[in-house]
Amino acid sequence: MERITGTMINYYFVCKRKLWYFIHDIQMEKENEDVQIGKLIDEKSYSREKKHITINNTISVDFIGKYNILHEVKKSKSIEEAGEWQIKYYIYYLRKKGVNIHKGIIDYPKLRQRQEVFLEKEDEIYIEKIIKEIKELKEGTIPNQISSKICKKCAYYELCYI
Ligand code: SF4
Questions:
Q1: Mutate to test the pocket of ligand 1, among 13, 78, 145, 150 (most ligand atoms within 8 A of CB)
Q2: Residue owning the nearest CA to atom 5 of ligand 1
Q3: Fewer CB in 10 Å around end: N or C, the chain?
Q4: Domains in the chain, CATH or no CATH each
Protein backbone atom coordinates (compact mmCIF):
# COMPACT_ATOMS: atom_id res chain seq x y z
CA MET A 1 0.00 0.00 0.00
CA GLU A 2 1.63 3.19 -1.18
CA ARG A 3 -0.62 5.90 0.13
CA ILE A 4 -1.70 6.47 3.71
CA THR A 5 -4.53 9.00 3.58
CA GLY A 6 -5.88 11.30 6.26
CA THR A 7 -9.09 9.28 6.32
CA MET A 8 -7.12 6.12 7.16
CA ILE A 9 -5.46 7.86 10.11
CA ASN A 10 -8.89 9.02 11.26
CA TYR A 11 -10.40 5.54 11.02
CA TYR A 12 -7.43 4.05 12.86
CA PHE A 13 -8.70 5.84 15.95
CA VAL A 14 -12.41 5.32 15.26
CA CYS A 15 -12.49 1.59 14.50
CA LYS A 16 -9.94 -0.85 13.04
CA ARG A 17 -12.69 -2.77 11.26
CA LYS A 18 -13.86 0.40 9.55
CA LEU A 19 -10.29 1.05 8.54
CA TRP A 20 -10.01 -2.49 7.17
CA TYR A 21 -13.12 -1.99 4.99
CA PHE A 22 -11.81 1.31 3.77
CA ILE A 23 -8.34 0.09 2.80
CA HIS A 24 -9.95 -2.81 0.95
CA ASP A 25 -11.91 -0.29 -1.14
CA ILE A 26 -15.24 -1.06 0.47
CA GLN A 27 -16.46 2.53 0.72
CA MET A 28 -19.95 3.47 1.80
CA GLU A 29 -19.50 6.96 3.22
CA LYS A 30 -21.29 8.71 0.35
CA GLU A 31 -24.56 7.13 1.37
CA ASN A 32 -24.29 8.18 4.98
CA GLU A 33 -26.29 11.27 5.85
CA ASP A 34 -23.97 12.33 8.63
CA VAL A 35 -21.09 12.58 6.25
CA GLN A 36 -23.17 14.63 3.83
CA ILE A 37 -24.10 17.07 6.59
CA GLY A 38 -20.42 17.27 7.46
CA LYS A 39 -19.58 18.20 3.90
CA LEU A 40 -22.31 20.84 3.88
CA ILE A 41 -20.86 22.51 6.96
CA ASP A 42 -17.48 22.31 5.33
CA GLU A 43 -18.68 24.10 2.22
CA LYS A 44 -20.80 26.84 3.75
CA SER A 45 -19.26 27.98 7.00
CA TYR A 46 -15.79 29.13 6.10
CA SER A 47 -15.87 29.78 2.40
CA ARG A 48 -14.36 33.25 2.50
CA GLU A 49 -11.15 32.57 4.32
CA LYS A 50 -10.02 29.19 3.11
CA LYS A 51 -8.52 27.47 0.12
CA HIS A 52 -9.31 23.80 -0.20
CA ILE A 53 -6.53 21.70 -1.68
CA THR A 54 -6.05 18.00 -2.30
CA ILE A 55 -2.41 16.99 -2.29
CA ASN A 56 -1.04 13.92 -4.08
CA ASN A 57 -4.50 12.37 -3.86
CA THR A 58 -3.56 11.62 -0.26
CA ILE A 59 -4.58 14.45 1.99
CA SER A 60 -7.32 16.99 1.56
CA VAL A 61 -6.88 20.16 3.57
CA ASP A 62 -7.87 23.76 3.94
CA PHE A 63 -5.20 26.40 4.35
CA ILE A 64 -5.62 29.74 5.99
CA GLY A 65 -3.32 32.66 6.52
CA LYS A 66 0.06 32.47 4.87
CA TYR A 67 -0.18 28.80 4.01
CA ASN A 68 1.49 27.66 7.20
CA ILE A 69 -1.67 27.01 9.13
CA LEU A 70 -3.82 24.03 8.30
CA HIS A 71 -7.52 24.25 8.78
CA GLU A 72 -10.05 21.49 9.25
CA VAL A 73 -13.78 21.71 9.89
CA LYS A 74 -15.57 19.10 11.97
CA LYS A 75 -19.24 18.96 12.78
CA SER A 76 -18.92 17.44 16.23
CA LYS A 77 -16.40 16.42 18.85
CA SER A 78 -17.75 12.87 19.02
CA ILE A 79 -14.45 11.29 18.01
CA GLU A 80 -12.20 14.16 18.85
CA GLU A 81 -9.01 12.15 19.13
CA ALA A 82 -9.40 10.86 15.55
CA GLY A 83 -9.80 14.38 14.19
CA GLU A 84 -6.80 15.60 16.11
CA TRP A 85 -4.53 12.84 14.81
CA GLN A 86 -5.81 13.31 11.29
CA ILE A 87 -4.65 16.92 11.33
CA LYS A 88 -1.38 15.97 13.01
CA TYR A 89 -0.85 13.56 10.13
CA TYR A 90 -1.47 16.33 7.60
CA ILE A 91 1.20 18.44 9.29
CA TYR A 92 3.54 15.43 9.37
CA TYR A 93 2.92 14.65 5.71
CA LEU A 94 3.45 18.22 4.52
CA ARG A 95 6.60 18.70 6.60
CA LYS A 96 8.02 15.53 5.00
CA LYS A 97 7.35 17.19 1.64
CA GLY A 98 9.22 20.29 2.76
CA VAL A 99 6.21 22.49 3.54
CA ASN A 100 6.76 24.00 6.95
CA ILE A 101 3.38 23.93 8.62
CA HIS A 102 3.35 25.68 11.95
CA LYS A 103 0.10 24.34 13.38
CA GLY A 104 -3.39 23.11 12.60
CA ILE A 105 -6.74 24.49 13.60
CA ILE A 106 -9.90 22.44 13.94
CA ASP A 107 -13.13 24.39 13.79
CA TYR A 108 -16.42 23.13 15.14
CA PRO A 109 -18.88 25.60 13.59
CA LYS A 110 -21.91 24.05 15.25
CA LEU A 111 -20.29 24.41 18.65
CA ARG A 112 -18.63 27.73 17.81
CA GLN A 113 -15.33 26.36 19.04
CA ARG A 114 -11.82 26.26 17.67
CA GLN A 115 -8.91 24.05 18.69
CA GLU A 116 -5.22 24.40 17.90
CA VAL A 117 -3.20 21.29 17.05
CA PHE A 118 0.60 21.02 17.11
CA LEU A 119 2.87 18.24 15.93
CA GLU A 120 5.57 17.41 18.49
CA LYS A 121 8.57 15.13 17.99
CA GLU A 122 6.95 12.26 19.93
CA ASP A 123 3.83 12.62 17.77
CA GLU A 124 5.96 12.01 14.67
CA ILE A 125 7.26 8.78 16.18
CA TYR A 126 3.71 7.73 17.03
CA ILE A 127 2.47 8.51 13.51
CA GLU A 128 5.22 6.31 12.06
CA LYS A 129 4.04 3.48 14.30
CA ILE A 130 0.44 4.01 13.12
CA ILE A 131 1.52 3.95 9.46
CA LYS A 132 3.29 0.62 10.05
CA GLU A 133 0.22 -0.81 11.78
CA ILE A 134 -2.10 0.31 8.98
CA LYS A 135 0.11 -1.48 6.45
CA GLU A 136 0.02 -4.63 8.59
CA LEU A 137 -3.76 -4.37 8.94
CA LYS A 138 -4.11 -4.40 5.17
CA GLU A 139 -2.47 -7.83 5.05
CA GLY A 140 -4.44 -9.26 7.98
CA THR A 141 -7.97 -10.61 8.44
CA ILE A 142 -10.91 -8.36 9.20
CA PRO A 143 -10.94 -7.15 12.84
CA ASN A 144 -13.97 -7.76 15.08
CA GLN A 145 -16.88 -5.34 15.47
CA ILE A 146 -16.32 -2.90 18.29
CA SER A 147 -19.95 -2.87 19.57
CA SER A 148 -19.82 0.81 20.37
CA LYS A 149 -22.49 3.47 20.39
CA ILE A 150 -20.79 4.98 17.33
CA CYS A 151 -21.71 1.88 15.29
CA LYS A 152 -25.29 3.05 14.81
CA LYS A 153 -24.06 6.13 12.97
CA CYS A 154 -21.39 4.33 11.00
CA ALA A 155 -21.75 3.96 7.22
CA TYR A 156 -20.70 0.30 7.55
CA TYR A 157 -23.34 -0.57 10.16
CA GLU A 158 -25.32 -2.80 7.83
CA LEU A 159 -22.23 -4.68 6.77
CA CYS A 160 -21.27 -5.31 10.38
CA TYR A 161 -24.56 -6.14 12.03
CA ILE A 162 -27.28 -7.04 9.52
S1 SF4 B 1 -20.35 -0.46 12.47
FE2 SF4 B 1 -19.03 -0.34 14.29
S3 SF4 B 1 -17.71 -2.16 14.13
FE4 SF4 B 1 -18.61 -1.82 12.12
S5 SF4 B 1 -17.11 -0.62 11.02
FE6 SF4 B 1 -18.58 0.80 11.92
S7 SF4 B 1 -17.69 1.41 13.87
FE8 SF4 B 1 -16.62 -0.43 13.21
A1: 145
A2: 18
A3: C
A4: 6-161 (3.90.320.10)
